[in-house]
Amino acid sequence: MPAVKDFYTLKRKILMNFISAGSALVIVIVTSSFMKFFTDVVGLSPATYGVIFLIFSIWNGINDPIIGFWADKRPFKTGRGKYLPLIRWSIPIIGFSVIILLLASPGWSETITAIYLLVLLVIYEGAQTMLGVSFMAFTVNTFLDSAERTEVQVIASYVNQIPVFLGGMIPVWFLTGDFSRTAVVAIFSGTFIFGLVLIWIGSRFVREDEKFYENMEVTRGMKDLFALSKNLFRDRTFLIFIFSFFLMQCGIGNYFSGYLYYMDNVLEVSGLKATIPDVLTGVGQMILFPFVIKWVKKFGSRDILWKGLLIALAGHLILTFPINYWVTAATYVVILFGYGFNSAIYAPLSGLVVDHIELETGKRQPGVIRGLIATIMLPAASVQPLILSALLSSAGYIGNVKQQSAEVVRAIRFGTGLIPAIFLAAGILLLVFLPIDHKRELEIQAAIEAKHVKQPEFA
Length: 459
What we know:
This protein is mostly helical. 80% of the residues lie in helices and 0% in strands. It is built from 20 helices and no strands. It has helices at 4-7, 10-16, 18-42, 46-73, 84-101, 110-142, 146-175, 181-203, 210-214, 222-232, 236-252, 255-266, 271-299, 301-319, 325-361, 366-381, 383-395, 406-416, 418-431, 438-452.
């Protein structure tokens, strides 16, 4: 069988990342538009949606390390693999939960709708976690070179452009325009099915090295897992990494929810005009990514990331002020340009953390570490919608009404501008002190390659 570098040609790396593309499409729809869908189409109050999203995020944080531990512990089965079966099992579960969510009726009571939403979000996120843990563990274990990891992530970012664009355009087009509930449900369902098909296609190009897993030490019991977790939370590198990204996620984890309200209720635009900034941001990021690879090789992941995020910080500050449509469009381009650094570098940087922990503990646990990171990170994703929903409720937001009061407009500006900027600034400041500078990054890479690099065979 071919070696990893021979098997994973550029074409196969692109096709493999259809998993990332399909998952991103579903995630963008769920996280960015379900708040608008349930408040305006179903009739749920913004405050109730914010509370449900917070509860669901906390529960999801609890089950993430458990799913990661289970995924890492599963034995490699010849002819099937270790993580590949989990990727494929997630597809029908995700499809069932998100499509059924769209069938919530405006005639239901607030309590019934809230329970229905919470239960199906828990099922959805469990399957999405299983998919994310498995694909991340596979890529970290397959591509050991830091530069190649960045290349694979950049390829994923390119492949994700069209699905993410669709995931952003469809909610803007159909939730800010005058469309029937039936049309919205049909369009969203078709989009979800398309995303799941992409995941299935990508899974056909996953190949796992059986010998690699035979020689990999993992935790086998809960006692070992608690010991590993204890060591992690004593590790300075791990702590700085998770808390810096926690703070940044609090501000920008669900920025698109605010984007919808900004376009619909601050600028009062819809349709094509509301999608123009989204198109321009995709073009800008595609131009940026090749430069990110070169800068990471020359200066290191950490320093390029925090400097790039300063661009997004400046954009959020501008949103706080009264600005017209074209300035807003340019500002969102700036913000997403800054986010582009994060989308290209975050995964390779988290892979370096996995490598660092293996060198410190002797255990290679990508699923567990990803789960523990998600335990802390996922509640942060609910902070921005929770703050925004609280601001909207206190300002007197009226669902399905385009022209809102001056108090609501001001609340949206603060919820999408100043408040995310404060969180982002705190996270950037902490990231500067992450111990993995360029020199340490090269040392970790050399140590991992010396320990694991060989001519692998594929199942």
